[in-house]
Every structure is written in C-alpha cells, then in structure tokens.
Amino acid sequence: MSTTMGTTRVFNVHARNWSTQASSSDSSGSEKNDDNEKKLTVSSYWGVTPPSITKADGSAWKWNCFRPWEAYQADTSIDVKKHHTPVTWNDKFAYWIVQACKYPAHLYFQRKHIHHAVLLETVAAVPGMVGGMLLHTKSLRRFEQSGGWIKALLEEAENERMHLMTFIDIYRPKWHERALVFAVQGVFFNAYFLAYLASPKLAHRITGYLEEEAVSSYTEFLNDLENGAMEDIPAPAIAIDYWCLPQNSTLKDVVRVIRADEAHHRDINHFASDIHCQGHELKEYPAPIGYH
Ligand SMILES: [Fe+2]
Ligand SMILES: [Fe+2]
C-alpha cells in the first residue's frame, strides 16, 4: 500500500481551466468542438476546474472514473483457497443462500466466463454500497464514528464496479442480459438492505460466501485461459492503469488480480461477521481501509 501511495506522487496533477484548453485545441472550428466549448464554459462559470492529469511519462490520463492515486498493485499472494467453515446456524443459513443462488447462475452461463463475470460484478458491487450507506446513516443517528468501516465498504463497492468497467470493455451485455441484471439488482438490493438492517452479521457472512464463490468462478476462468480452452486477449487499457499492470498484460493477468481482489473482499466480510458474532460492533475494530 505504502509503495502504491509512494508511486502516485510521481503523477503530475494540476488544475486547468477547461474552456482555455478547449479553445486552444479548436483549430477546425467544427460544430462538435463548439458544443464541447459551450459545455466547458458552463462548467468554468461555476469555478469547477477539473484537473488535467498526466502519467509519469507525460501522456494524458484518460480515465475520469478513477484517478492515478486510486490505482494499486493487487496482492496476488493471498490464499485463494481459504474457506470459512459454516458452524453456527447463521453461517449455515448464509452458506446455503449463496449455494442456492450459485447453481442457477452456473446453469445459465455455463462456461461463458465473461458473461458470468459481468452479471456477478453487478451483484457483487451492491453489498459494500448498502452496508456503507447503512453504517453512514447509523453514524449520523447515533452521533458516533464508524471506525473507518463506511470507507472500507464503499471502497469495496467501488473496486467491484471497476471490475465491471473492465469487463464491459471486453463484452457489452445483450438486451436479455441487461434485463436480467435489472431484475436481479431490484431483488438483491432490497433483500440485502433488509438483511443488513436485520442482521449485519448474517449480511456480512452472506457476502463472505459470495466472495468465496467469486474466487472459485475466477479460478475456473483462469484455468480455461491457462489450458487454452479460452483465447487469451490483450488486457483492456483501463485494467492496465487501474492495477498498474505491465503494458503487455493479457486477460489472464487481469483475471488473476481480480481474483485477488475478491479474496480480499472475502476476508473483510468474514472478519466483519466474526466481529459481530463475538458480540462486538464494527466501530470497535479499525477497518481494513486500502486492504488489497
Ligand atoms: Fe468483483
Ligand atoms: Fe468481491
């Protein structure tokens, strides 16, 4: 983490007025550039000056959805086989809920790994946001700190969404997959919201098992890439910048770092559930912020 933070210092970041930038590059006077200038002028009227960011090599930073200081190198040495053995009723219930959801998904997608990953990520990005939002409102209601857990859970949600942004660079879902995502999100968001309100220890345990399944799905994905059952392709540019990967990285490298992320989410959520199971509150234990 400290290395990553250290690395980000080399990026050149400075504020620049967008309208100035647009007029200097507008030599053709085309309609498109006029439109852009109009938009950017409105933006600068409010004094909002988005920073112009460059990479260490001087080239422009092309992503607005994340910035260089949010990029990191995933710790791929994490144990991807770790499993929380369900012992209590709470654990067993959480485990079987995830098992019951897993089989229809495997049946539907079979070995279409990228299609499966897109759906999986739209679901996986929900628990962190719901948990973070509920801890946020709890902190406001009770006039107390969260111990950093709001940030840790929102970081997880953001990280999951970046997984999705990576995969949609490779595959754009068809209309029926979008409809499925829409329906699943409607059900899952509300169900998880109610589950977290009723029992955070159950909700975190469910997410812990969901993450275990994500690790196992990405392991199958990786195996098919390694044994040639699936063609390996160059890594999307967004993934190279987000995980600080070498320029010649391939999908295999991307799946490896995403799997490592999922293993970290697994640990965070089982840890959170354990805190509750032992009769404590999350705020009593410092949250694992920046745990990659
Ligand atoms: Fe993910
Ligand atoms: Fe995850």
Automatic annotation (TrEMBL):
Give the record's keywords alphabetically.
Answer: Electron transport, Iron, Membrane, Metal-binding, Oxidoreductase, Respiratory chain, Transmembrane, Transmembrane helix, Transport
Chief location of this protein? Answer: membrane
Q: Does the keyword Disulfide bond apply?
A: no
Instruction: Write down the Gene3D superfamilies for this protein, in alphabetical order.
Output: Alternative oxidase
* Keyword Protease appears in the UniProt entry: no
Q: Which InterPro entries match?
A: AOX, AOX_sf
The free-text note explaining how the cofactor binds reads: Binds 2 iron ions per subunit.
**Reaction equations catalysed:** 2 a ubiquinol + O2 = 2 a ubiquinone + 2 H2O
Where does the UniProt annotation locate this protein? Answer: Membrane
Cofactor(s) the record lists? Fe cation
As given in the record, the signal peptide range reads: none
Transmembrane regions: 179-198
Which EC class does it fall in?
Answer: oxidoreductase
Protein's recorded name: Ubiquinol oxidase
Traced from the root, the source organism's taxonomic lineage reads:
Eukaryota, Viridiplantae, Streptophyta, Embryophyta, Tracheophyta
* Cross-referenced PANTHER family: ALTERNATIVE OXIDASE, UBIQUINOL OXIDASE
Superkingdom of the organism of origin:
Eukaryota
Please state which protein family the record places this protein in: Belongs to the alternative oxidase family.
E.C. designation(s): 1.10.3.11
